[in-house]
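Researcher: If only I could read backbone structure tokens as easily as an amino acid sequence. Walk me, if you will, through where the backbone shape changes along the chain. I have put the entry right below:
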Amino acid sequence: MELEAPLRRFGLFRNPVVVKELRGRMRGARAFAVLSVYLLLMVGFMLLLYMLSTASRDVFGFTSGGQVGRTLFTGIVGIQLFLVTFIAPSFTASAISGERERQTYDLLKTTLLPAHALVIGKLFSALSYVFLLLIAAIPLQSVAFLFGGVSEIEVVLAFVILAVTAIALGTTGLYFSASQARTLSANVTTYAVTLFITVGLPMIIFIAIALFASLLGARQADIAAEVQVVLLYGLLALAATNPLVAAFLTQYWLLNKQSAVFFYETVTSTTGIIQVPLLSPWILFSAFYLLVSLVLVVRTVQRVRRIET
């Protein structure tokens, strides 16, 4: 009770939907049970990765500490991305359609709560728990520092990519929750879009990378520099549409170019060598998905206003 008064001074915590949802989600034992199981699974997966990584030795019979740390960090971030992909939409896909099925939506309308306050309140309360899961796993990522091979900027960028992914998928679920009359159809549609983003897009991107590599590997010098630049920018833009590929390329260029923001890529052609300026994929990924999230929030507010009328 002592914390509630200071928190309500902030704008979001004045929203009655936020207060109601957070109280209902955090007061019971379910939230802490889910968090405990989540962390136990992460610890178990980390121990499994540790045993597998230490089992591989070099020609001198030793295991590289940096390799162990990088394996642990990559594995933990990968499993977090997998969990966020399925947890974030599940919290929002039933946010509005569930109120309509339980016939409690009319009670929300009697409070004279604006449509945008309802949408933002539902989204914020759902994503708060997802962010709690992400923050709780940061100490597990930091274990990689004990072995080396991982920098602080990699931890920060991994959290940014995970957070943006959670926001984008959460707003996707909320949009379909407002546009679909039933929670089941909202969940099906949301996870269909989620699977396309996480599974379908990587397949398209890997095919594009393979074609790009075959073109440049066989006769790179014969391809015009302008064509190579267009292909490189197109590949970067395509990679920014998927969190897994964006995270992989961000780490790859961070290690090879020693830059997390801006770098140059060398293009070789018959006209000579050209230095092409590029932005790190995580920047394009964050900008693209945050813009999509903003559009979805606006569209959700419009849908809610239609329901009220």
